[in-house]
Design brief:
The chain has 384 residues and is mainly alpha-helical. It is 48% helix and 10% strand.
């Protein structure tokens, strides 16, 4: 029997009895095969009575390897994921969201645990359609969930179902035609420049630093609490790179960002002077200005400023707009930008909004101009 040759990559067959290859067909010793497994590791098998048996086994292995390299077919994906429980699919999807910061993961977990899983966790993936999604929104409404929570929960559910739709689990998009919850943030209450001037000096020096960073640079409370001298990267630029996380009272990544990500914001001269005066008077700890008053080894906590804000409001000695909250200082930054014709796209970036839609919803009414003004300006061009 002549020796048969094998295609490249299939492997090889041989004997270890010491007989020359020409004697193998008549030699009683068994054949062995050598090949590369699916993972690329070399493997051997023995005990084959003849050449054909060894080659048949190599052929089967070769076909298995080729099949393993083929992309999963749509039918296979539907069989695998279609009957999977939503909670199991969502956990698999969540494992792939490596871009999410720690706080974003905690927010996602909270929405899944308290709102999405109780209503949909046991449902099979192939049973979703627009009616199921719409019923989920109505359930949240009946349970008294706030519009912000409804909107966030719907966004997460939509992301998961669209991921499944891309796999081919649904013939039609299960969120198409569903009216999303409309979160309309409360109208921002903003102090006037005169009111802000009185507010910023109504507390201690740390309070002034916080107010100036929020109203002058657009920082969030936790970002202002993490102010660091090394983040002044130019005379007029402050780099926002971390925050004091409320849940841990420790420094952590920015909202919607991973560790190491940052945004650069304008640094007005007055804010820089406030920072420099504070450093000259109190010094820093590893560059950080603000520390916990009762324990300088720890970061400045949110309640330190909250307590001052409540005392200032309760004192009645400072003119504070009705309904204004601490966050109103950040709203002042947006108002100041937009009233001076700074593009809202820049404002959204500086404030660290995940989407410009958020900026529009909150601050669009602050943008200069109106339809009437636009009509007049357009008419000038037409009449030229």
């Amino acid at each position: 029997m002549a020796q048969r040759s094998l295609p490249r990559g299939m492997g090889s067959f041989f004997k270890e009895c010491g007989h020359p290859q020409s004697r193998w067909p008549k030699c009683p010793h068994p054949y062995k095969i050598r090949y590369r497994s699916v993972t690329g590791e070399q493997a051997e098998e023995s005990g084959f009575a003849d050449q054909d048996a060894a080659i048949d086994r190599l052929t089967d292995i070769y076909k298995e390897k080729k099949a393993a390299k083929q992309p999963q077919s749509k039918a296979e994906r539907i069989r695998k994921y279609g009957t999977m429980r939503f909670a199991d699919y969502a956990e698999e999807w969540k494992a792939g969201q490596r871009h999410l910061a720690v706080q974003s993961v905690k927010h996602l977990d909270s929405l899944l645990e308290h709102h999405i899983y109780p209503a949909l966790g046991s449902r099979r993936m192939n049973s979703f359609d627009h009616k199921v999604v719409d019923a989920f929104i109505r359930t949240m409404e009946r349970n008294g969930a706030g519009l912000a929570t409804q909107s966030n929960a719907f966004d997460k559910l939509r992301a998961i179902l669209l991921d499944a739709h891309r796999l081919g689990i649904f013939p039609d998009n299960p969120v198409a035609g569903v009216k999303a919850p409309q979160y309309d943030p409360a109208r921002a209450v903003i102090p006037s420049p005169e009111q802000l001037a009185a507010i910023r000096t109504a507390g201690d020096d740390a309070f002034m630093v916080m107010v100036d960073l929020m109203s002058g640079c657009g920082l969030r409370n936790g970002e202002a609490a993490a102010v660091n001298l090394s983040n002044i990267v130019a005379d007029d630029v402050y780099r926002v790179s971390e925050q004091v996380v409320m849940s841990t009272a420790q420094y952590g990544p920015l909202k919607h960002r991973k560790a190491g990500e940052y945004r650069d914001v304008p640094l007005p001269a007055r804010v820089r002077e406030t920072i420099e005066c504070y450093v000259e008077k109190y010094g820093t700890v590893d560059g950080y200005l603000l520390r916990l008053p009762t324990d300088p080894t720890k970061p400045y906590k949110h309640h330190a400023m909250d307590n001052q804000w409540r005392r200032i409001k309760a004192s009645g000695t400072v003119d504070i707009p009705e309904g204004m909250v601490l966050y109103g200082h950040r709203h002042f930054f947006a108002s100041n930008c937009l009233s001076n014709n700074i593009p809202i796209t820049d404002v959204a970036e500086w404030m660290g909004h995940k989407s410009i839609d958020v900026t529009f919803k909150i601050y669009r009414h602050l943008m200069p101009g109106s339809i009437s003004t636009a009509a007049e300006l357009l008419n000038l061009g037409l009449a030229a």
